[in-house]
What does this fold into?
Amino acid sequence: MKYKDFTSQEVYYSNFKIENIYDKEDFYVLKLQENNLVLYTSIEKNNSIKKLRNINIAILTTNLSFYEFLKGFYTKSIYYDEISTKNTIKEKLFLKINKQHKNEKLQELFSALFLAIPISKVNRKIYTNLSISHLIAISGFHLAILSFIIYWLIYFPYSYLHKRYFIFRNKSADVMAFTILILFLYLLLTNMVPSLLRSFVMFFLAFLFLRSNLKILSFQTLALTFLIIISLFPQFLFSISFWFSIIGVFYIFLYLEYFKNLPKLFSILFFNIWIFFVFNPIVHFFFFDTTIEQLLSPLLTLGFSIFYPFELIFHIFSYGGFLDSFILDFLEYKFTVFDVITPLWFFLFYIVLSIGSVFYNKAFIVLNILMVLFNCHLYL
It folds into this structure.
């Protein structure tokens, strides 16, 4: 969708997918998507309106700036009608997940984990208070687990075919190519959420670089990934989840640069701890909620690497509700929440130091000092 085409007429009528529904007191606010266009509008309450359904809607386009068009905007709707269509694959999976859970929190949790369907604001605060929002939003962490599972599911049957018919081919490269294809289809299924798209592009580049004997893990790779995505989807410049994904990988590379010689067993735990603490000044510039329980985040992240694949298997075989009572007790824990805000001057200085750490050891030392001071201020 082009800005000039969209605003060439005062009323725009088209087919949109309902990405999310925000329940207000007297009306619904809908998050709608048509290809790369994302907008918000309000309609009267209607029980037949469902997530992932398509809707024909007429909206106003007057007084819309190019900046608003890129980042997503709210506009008034003047007419809509629902469309009766067969369930898409995503809708069928969504219903399959929901049928395995009686509680709405759990339905939202696993729909987000497997299909990247947005969570309501109220339930999202639970994951913010635990500092595990990065585990709920599908990203590189999930892609790594999925790629591992897919790779080995393909590897063994293909090995049989390879020995009989394709002995001349590179077996590992073929299996990886099939894995990338399946991951791409999954990316399309989730409507190319920014964090997953970043992960997929980096995964694809890593495959190409590995085949060409080029360095895979580098800041240059991250920069190339950023440029590719922004050139194709400029609206992601206004996506916090995209920026968090980029910054998160940046700090991972920074960790690998400076802590690569640590003992492996120690590094597994220290990695999660350091990433959690170094990211906090960035997170608290945008999200202020703070709880002491957030300190459990590194351990919960480690545990999630076991929890996620098991839950994926349980849901495939329709036993997704197996651990519901334990998960619900965990999610209904009552927090004592207080606000801590990263000042703008500190945020900008911290970003400069982070970038400087790529080139200067002293900048990295100062960065870690500020990291410790900020987290002491945050939790003590």
